[in-house]
Amino acid sequence: MPDLRRVHRFRDHPIEGVNWRPTRFVDEVPSSGVCGLCRMIPNQIVVLPCLHTLCQACHAASSQGAGGRCPLDQEPFEEAECGSYHWPSRKANALKVHCWNDAHGCEFEGAMELMLRHYENECTFHTVECLQCGEEVLHKELSRHYAAENASSDSQVLTLQDVTAALEELKALLRDANHEQLLLAIQSQMNELIEQIRNQEHRSAS
């Protein structure tokens, strides 16, 4: 499980496609550049008198008129006591991040701009959903996955031996069962056979 202390989202990042996406950083981001509440990395940081840092949105939500309370320790503050500073984009761009596909096995590490280029043009660990089973499968392995699924389906095809075995069970019941038990047994066997045939037809159609 990834270290959530190193998972952040950018806000107001100049590179298109980066903002609001959960991103895992190689090293811990300095607390001075992170909102202590939502863990966003904004370009404008507000510092409260208690020294907790907030993005502008979290600061506004915590304020009431000329003051408010820190959402992290409930310490009261006055707006006049708060500081604010700009966290340059070049600092954010210099931080190394993991590829967004790291959970699927990608080991790329690099600056955000390089990672985005890698993710869109080079990464081979993108996943897609298998239309047969609904699983998330690596795109590069989808063909092999489909072949394995079809082989598994073929091995489950209802055969004449299956039907014959079911009939033999019914014959055995017929010899020493009363009619009510026999009807229940026949109905149960028929339901199973019908369900197997329907599943087989569904797999063949897909």
UniProtKB/TrEMBL annotation:
Keywords tagged on the record: Coiled coil, Metal-binding, Zinc, Zinc-finger
Gene Ontology biological process terms, A to Z: regulation of canonical NF-kappaB signal transduction
Highest taxon of source: Eukaryota
Zinc keyword on record: yes
PROSITE patterns on file: ZF_RING_2
Keyword Magnesium in record: no
GO cellular component: cytoplasmic side of plasma membrane
One protein family per Pfam: zf-C3HC4_3
GO molecular function: tumor necrosis factor receptor binding; zinc ion binding
Organism name: Rhipicephalus sanguineus (Brown dog tick)
Cross-referenced SUPFAM superfamilies: RING/U-box, TRAF domain-like
Alphabetized PANTHER family for the sequence: RE66324P (PTHR10131:SF138), TNF RECEPTOR ASSOCIATED FACTOR (PTHR10131)
Coiled-coil region(s): 160-203
InterPro entries: Znf_RING (IPR001841), Znf_RING/FYVE/PHD (IPR013083)
UniProt-recorded name of the protein: RING-type domain-containing protein
Domain RING-type: 35-74
Alphabetized Gene3D superfamilies for the sequence: Zinc/RING finger domain, C3HC4 (zinc finger)
